[in-house]
Design a protein that fits this description.
This protein has 15 helices and 3 strands. By secondary structure, it is mainly alpha-helical. A 3-stranded antiparallel sheet has the order 1-2-3. The chain is elongated.
């Protein structure tokens, strides 16, 4: 039920939802009521300051990983559509009204397109949870520090590792190209290679067979539960690789090459506030580089 009990708003709302499904109506009511709780006034009484207050509240939730950018975008679009209906029919209802949500459509689109990422404190806890499993630890490193997908990680063979004067590289079969391995990952890999049983594949299960993407997903879920952090996907952890590179001033071309994606895709990884936060957290001894287990 809509919390704005004014007769005119109730009439407008009733007309607006006439053709909506029950599920859509429930979503609509939830979003509108959240907005009303935030501004503490009726929908028809709102102003630009009220909308900005709500926008800042949603943005803070996204920054704290309490809500996805896509959810924020959906909420603003729902409110904008309702406001647009009122604006279009304001003469019919005999009211004066402005749609203050319009300027925020572009802003929430930028938030939505920004890749989801895990805060570095959560990444730190994830690696702490996996420190006694050196293979699992190295698999996480392949995503977080090297930027590989689960299918790319599963295909790595020992012979795909190549050491040159300027460092170690991994030949990624799906890309038909080599990918740079940061020094901290090399340290952990060398420790792992000294302990692993003979096998042509870099990572394998208890039966000696190569792992697959499902294995990686289950392994990550296991350590996420152990660490007590939110349920991040490997993609989220991999996204963070681009932000780490961005924190160290890597160019878009370098990030695109490392993650094996195009230049258009890499632009969604731009996040100045995250880069600045990583620099600050580095001073607080939260690891951007990852220690060997």
């Amino acid at each position: 039920m809509l919390q704005d009990t004014s007769p005119i708003c109730q009439q407008i709302y009733s007309d607006y939802i006439k053709t909506m499904s029950k599920k859509t109506i429930l979503t609509m009511e939830s979003v509108v009521n959240e907005f009303l709780n935030c501004i503490q006034k009726g929908f028809l009484d709102m102003n630009s300051t009220d909308v900005n207050k709500y926008y800042l509240m949603l943005r803070e939730k996204v920054q704290k990983s309490q809500q996805q950018g896509s959810t924020m975008s959906k909420k603003i679009h729902i409110l904008h559509a309702f406001a647009a209906f009122i604006l279009e029919n304001r003469e019919k209802y005999g009211i004066s009204f402005e749609n203050y949500f319009t300027p925020y459509l572009k802003l929430v689109e930028k938030v939505r397109l920004q890749a989801k990422l895990a805060p570095i404190e959560h990444i730190d806890k994830l690696f702490q949870a996996a420190k006694d499993d050196i293979q699992g630890y190295c698999i996480l490193l392949m995503a977080y520090r090297v930027g590989l997908k689960s299918s790319e990680i599963a295909e790595i063979e020992e012979e795909d590792l190549a050491v040159y004067e300027n460092g170690m590289y991994i030949y990624v079969k799906q890309r038909h190209d080599y990918c740079y391995v940061p020094e901290d990952v090399v340290t952990a890999l060398n420790k792992y290679l000294q302990q692993k049983a003979p096998n042509k594949y870099l990572f394998f299960n208890n039966r000696g067979n190569p792992i697959n993407p499902c294995y990686v997903t289950r392994m990550i879920k296991k350590y996420i539960q152990k660490s007590g952090i939110p349920n991040y996907s490997l993609m989220t952890i991999r996204n963070s690789c681009a932000f780490v590179m961005d924190a160290y001033g890597a160019s878009e071309e370098q990030k695109a090459q490392q993650l094996g994606i195009g230049m258009i895709g890499i632009r969604r990884y731009k996040n100045t506030s995250y880069r600045d936060d990583m620099k600050r957290k580095a001073n607080d001894l939260v690891r951007i580089r990852v220690d060997a287990p």
